[in-house]
Structure formats: C-alpha cells, structure tokens
Design a protein that fits this description.
Blueprint: E1 6-12, H1 15-19, E2 24-30, E3 33-39, H2 42-55, E4 59-64, E5 70-76
Parallel strand pairs: 1-4
Antiparallel strand pairs: 1-2, 2-3, 4-5
Length: about 100
Amino acid sequence: MTAKQTVYHVTPSGDRAAAAGVKWQVEGREGRRVLHEPHRTQQDAIDSARRRAREHTPAQVVVHARDGHVRSAYAYGSPPASSPDERGRRAGEHGGVF
C-alpha cells in the first residue's frame, strides 16, 4: 500500500489575521491532524511548508498568490501510484468526472 500524499497550501490570511500582523498561512493535513500555521511573511510560510513536506514524504507544497491563483508548486518524494488526475479518474482509466 502506498502512502497518501500530503499537500500543504501557502495562502494569504484573512482580513482579521492580517490586521494582527499575520499575512500568510500554511494549511494542510498530516494524517488526522489539521494544520493551520500563521506566518508574517510569505517566504516564512513557504520555508515552513517545504520543511514539513520534506519530513512527511510523499508531499507537495502549493504556493498561492494574493489573488488565490497557484504561483508555484514543489513535490517531495514519490507521489502515490494511483492518485486521481485533475478530472477525478485514476491513472490509466478513461472517462471520469468532467
């Protein structure tokens, strides 16, 4: 059985958190644990997410811009062999959710 890939998202914080000086956050799930980690700068959040991803391979870090679009992504370790693609089907299958 292959390990499930952990995905960490670096996203801008909400308005209330930004008012308190926290402008970026790392969100993800490590097993059953939900991660929500605040950071003052985007680079601090990226560094933290990449460090966590190296510790919990296979993993991916997805960095979002302020407007929410994906700015960059980093992969660590081997992804699961049967992960669904962007249309919801498994590798090698035809059809899927469109």
